[in-house]
Amino acid sequence: MYIVAGMVRWAFPIKRCSAHPKKLGLLVAVFTLGYICIDRNIFFLDRVSSKLPRDILSVDSKYAGGSAKNADQKVDLYHSGVDEMHLSELSKGVTEKEVENMKQTVQYLTLDDIRDGQAESNTKKLDGASMCPEVEDNPNMKGPIPQAVLLIDNLKESEVASIHPELSPGGQWAPDDCKPRHKVAVIIPYRDRQSHLTRLLYFLIPILKRQKLDFRFIVTEQWGNDLFNKGRIMNAAFRLAERLGTDCVIFHDVDMFPQDDRNPYSCPPAPRHLGAFVSNLGYQLWYKEIVGGALAISMADYRAVNGYSNMYWAWGGEDDDMGKRILSLNYTIERPNPVTGRYSMLKHVKRKRTAPKLIYKLLEIAEQRVATDGLNETDKWNVVKMEVRPLYYHMYVDVLEVPEEWRGNGKES
Ligand SMILES: *[C@@H]1O[C@H](CO)[C@@H](O)[C@H](O)[C@H]1NC(C)=O
Ligand SMILES: *[C@@H]1O[C@H](CO)[C@@H](O)[C@H](O)[C@H]1NC(C)=O
């Protein structure tokens, strides 16, 4: 969907740090980044990113116009190429994700092992404590968030886990000085972006803690390598969130980084499109049904719209379809404050819509498919494996057969 408006102007020339911050602890790394690389641009980025967000973090070579090639090379440090090279020497033939996974203590589960939120509910004693403040009234929020951590592309999950010993398995946490008002599951659809995922977790954990939420993370990954069906893996993850007894879910793309901690990750009364103002999109809202990037929605509303469509393959469509579902039920789409609701989007290799005509055809009749195509369907995915990692629940979802017409091969468009 973001393809619609991939209009990016230019990038600052950012150089890679020559020093490798790996050996220093993570926090040290964050600070040393500024010293070791006395590179005025990185300094500049960190200092002004919140005031003057530009597309430094996201240059899309396809849409950036004439100087794109050059700009693209300059910001290429955001692409995980470095990690991949590094890892391919470490472990030939093993993916980055597998390397991360091997290093962790993991508990294997089935959906039936998780019982209606009881097993996982926070057991801390809060008798007599008062309710936590709503994010809007919370005096601990800091406002603009430095974005320099986005430059660290070799952060490891184990490092993030070790600086957050207060998290329970599954990346769960709840405040112990007040009663949380919101029990939230952040659902991250995942494919091949380990370095983005690690940074996102590193980034979100302190924000969610400051917001005094009861939270956990669900990383939902498609089993196998065939065409992506994001709708199905998100629906599958919602079923897990139901088991965990959350009040709402937040669907969060792995490359979306909030620029301000006052953007509320709490449970909204009406579907809340958190990712409304994004660096790649010129911080503008492009059409009314846009809900991609980050969407918070209550369990009841998600069931009412029958979840995401299961019918979109490859890339794009399911988010706009969701927007149409929400509007077709006359729900409003809540959006954050344009100042505090900004996101940086990390650069990645652009995926092409393989079958745009099929997508448009489906979108035209999105409203008519609400009742029949979605969460309701029980035969569109299978959960192959589910694990509880230190920082998140990790589920692998088989999305079953890809219909032939979606295979594109370039002729369709
Ligand atoms: C939404 O509002 C329109 C116009 O007021 C109305 O015709 C329609 O029936 C409503 N739809 C639902 C699902 O309530
Ligand atoms: C789900 O399916 C059932 C049975 O087909 C139907 O009664 C129900 O309305 C559907 N739910 C939604 C949200 O469409």
UniProtKB/TrEMBL annotation:
GO terms for biological process: carbohydrate metabolic process; glycosphingolipid biosynthetic process. One of its GO terms (molecular function) is galactosyltransferase activity. Its cofactor is Mn(2+). Signal peptide: none annotated. GO terms for cellular component: Golgi apparatus; membrane. Pfam families: Glyco_transf_7C, Glyco_transf_7N. It is found in: Membrane. It is a single-pass type II membrane protein. SUPFAM superfamilies: Nucleotide-diphospho-sugar transferases (SSF53448). Residues 272-348 form the Galactosyltransferase C-terminal domain. It comes from the Eukaryota. Keywords: Glycoprotein, Glycosyltransferase, Manganese, Membrane, Metal-binding, Signal-anchor, Transferase, Transmembrane, Transmembrane helix. Pathway: Protein modification; protein glycosylation. InterPro entries: Galactosyl_T (IPR003859), Galactosyl_T_C (IPR027791), Galactosyl_T_N (IPR027995), Nucleotide-diphossugar_trans (IPR029044). Gene3D superfamilies: Spore Coat Polysaccharide Biosynthesis Protein SpsA, Chain A. Residues 137-268 form the Galactosyltransferase N-terminal domain. Its EC number is 2.4.1.-. The chain crosses the membrane at residues 24-45. It is an enzyme of class 2 (transferase). PANTHER family: BETA-1,4-GALACTOSYLTRANSFERASE, BETA-1,4-N-ACETYLGALACTOSAMINYLTRANSFERASE. Belongs to the glycosyltransferase 7 family. Catalyzes the transfer of galactose onto proteins or lipids. This is Beta-1,4-N-acetylgalactosaminyltransferase.
